[in-house]
Structures are given as structure tokens and as C-alpha cells.
Description:
The protein is mostly helical and 131 residues long. It has one domain. The protein is 74% helix and 0% strand. It has helices at residues 5-26, 31-41, 49-65, 69-87, 94-116, 123-127. Helix 1 (5-26) packs antiparallel against helix 3 (49-65) and helix 4 runs antiparallel to helix 5 (94-116). The relative contact order is 0.17.
Amino acid sequence: xxxxxxxxxxxxxxxxxxxxxxxxxxxxxxxxxxxxxxxxxxxxxxxxxxxxxxxxxxxxxxxxxxxxxxxxxxxxxxxxxxxxxxxxxxxxxxxxxxxxxxxxxxxxxxxxxxxxxxxxxxxxxxxxxxx
Length: 131
């Protein structure tokens, strides 16, 4: 299995990033105001939305291509856990419970990526950076 580790890390980076790239892109344009209102209704300052988009879209692309991978993965891990706690804490709702657990699972994937690094097929490797 060791010989497939770098290929597996590349595939994992791509798969885990797609969700965040699509989510970040989806918050741009006409969805921006609605997302900001939702955040404020959940007692999260709407002014944090640009940072959310930057992490989801920019961070998703960075992880996908293996740039600043470990650092971005740590921030995304924290983001996933906070999102679960702040937005999906109504366990009387089955969907919220599922979303809470989904965020924790994705966060665990980012935590593992932060610990293992991006692998051989990454910009970090080309730049010889561990970030």
C-alpha cells in the first residue's frame, strides 16, 4: 500500500476539496446576501462571510493543488468543527445531526491531511516546503 500513498493523497486532496470549492463559489453573486443573513440569524457576524469564501474557495483550490497544504488543512479542520458546533447543533433535527457528524468527518480528513502532508504530487513538494 505504501507505493500508492502519493497517488492516494492526490485523489483524497481532490475529493475533499471539491465540496469546499463548490460551496465557496456558490456563496458569490446573488447567494451572498442570503448566506450573510443566515449567518447573522445563527448569531455569527455576517462580516465573516468573505473569510469563509476565501477559506472554502481559495483554501479548497490550494489543497487541491497541494499549495500551503498543511497550514490550509489546519484552518479548514478548525472551520469544519466550528461550523458543526455553530450551525448544526439542533440534534432534535435528524438532518442537523447528520450535518454535524459530516462536518466532524470532513474535519478529521483535513486533520489527517495536515499531519501527513500533500504527498509527492503537489506544489508544496515542487517548492520543497512543508508549510
